[in-house]
Write a structure and sequence with these properties.
The structure is a homodimer. The first copy, chain A, is of the alpha/beta class. Chain A contains 8 helices and 9 strands. Chain A is about 40% helix and about 20% strand. In chain A, α1 crosses α7. The interface between A and B is medium-sized, with 30 and 28 residues.
Chain lengths: ~200, ~200
């Protein structure tokens, strides 16, 4: 029996600003070291502690617009006045090599990815409550009141897109949320469409 | 915010005779003690070590046919000349109380359940190979060569129904298979359709 090489799975994580996605992703990547985390390109300013090439590839608006024009992006979107986008080639190479790829992108980008790649797995992360989200945004001490109000309003709009997602994870505790996402990835690898080759040749 | 009580999830496990489903189920039930395992009714003879009310509810053909006529069964099927069926009322009560229910049923019954309950999660368990399945059936020392040949032929037919299932799990080692099914149940509880109530009232 010849087993076809299996393609990797594309996993999209979204969630409102302040939900703690980066921390959940760090934990997830330590649970699943074989997972490739695609680093997005962005025109926003690095926050304290963020590094170019680690958290994001930070580029200026001119460079980002050049990438758009050259067709180098799988998806891109403007979010709170900054561009965010995902490199196409890197992802395709990893998937073809059978590696699961994780993307951290917002709702517009996620919808675009799902339309281009219907097998992508879309996961939305929410905080335990909106009050908690507000508390976390204030606790970060990086944004003005006005920016925070904008982020909360944006979060309300994003919640309306949750029905487009496959899974909903509550970030009550980072280890719980990362464990649930790890289970989702295991389950997705067990889907009949991804394993049917195991039944060939019987 | 008032959270609606969530209904339990109906999980169907199928797999060829000899794949080791009962052992996987025992392990799964110790991983997930909140899971309710629905004991099927059958007209087949108990095997050595099997107990009435534990492995199956063993009944005779007349009683089984009375249950069919009285509409007491969610599904039933004839398999290797014996009836197997699932009680409707017990399952509905558990699901309504928010308890996940596990059914061990063959492919005809699984298709019936999926048509009656589209949200049911269907999992098919296969052995690492057909040679291994044959070895396990012989090792059981309970069936004649003829019965084993019949079971292997039946298994080949069952494999054709795998595309109707949601997930495919390989029982290479019992603990691996049970862990994968546990992850599937966790992932299914995270599906947006089962958690969308968490986003209400925002």
């Amino acid at each position: 029996m010849i087993k076809k090489q299996k393609e990797g799975t594309l996993i999209v994580l979204s969630g409102p600003s302040g939900v703690g996605k980066s921390t959940v992703i760090s934990q997830l990547l330590s649970n699943r070291e074989d997972l490739y985390f695609s680093i997005s390109f962005t025109t926003r300013q690095p926050r304290v502690g963020e590094e170019n090439g680690v958290n994001y590839n930070f580029v200026d608006r001119d460079e980002f617009e050049r990438m758009i024009a050259a067709g180098e992006l799988l998806e891109y979107a403007e979010y709170v006045s900054n561009y965010y986008g995902t490199s196409l080639k890197v992802i395709n190479d990893k998937l073809a090599a059978g590696i699961d790829v994780l993307l951290d992108i917002e709702v517009q980008g996620a919808a675009k990815v799902k339309s281009l790649c219907p097998d992508a797995v879309l996961i939305f992360i929410i905080p335990p409550s909106f009050e908690e989200l507000s508390r976390r945004l204030h606790g970060r001490n990086t944004d003005s009141e006005e920016t925070i109000a904008g982020r909360l309003q944006k979060a309300r709009e994003e919640y309306k897109e949750i029905p487009r997602y496959d899974y909903l994870v509550v970030n009550d505790r980072v280890d719980n949320a990362a464990a649930e996402i790890t289970s989702i990835l295991t389950a997705e690898s067990c889907r009949v469409k991804r394993r049917i080759h195991l039944t060939e040749g019987v």
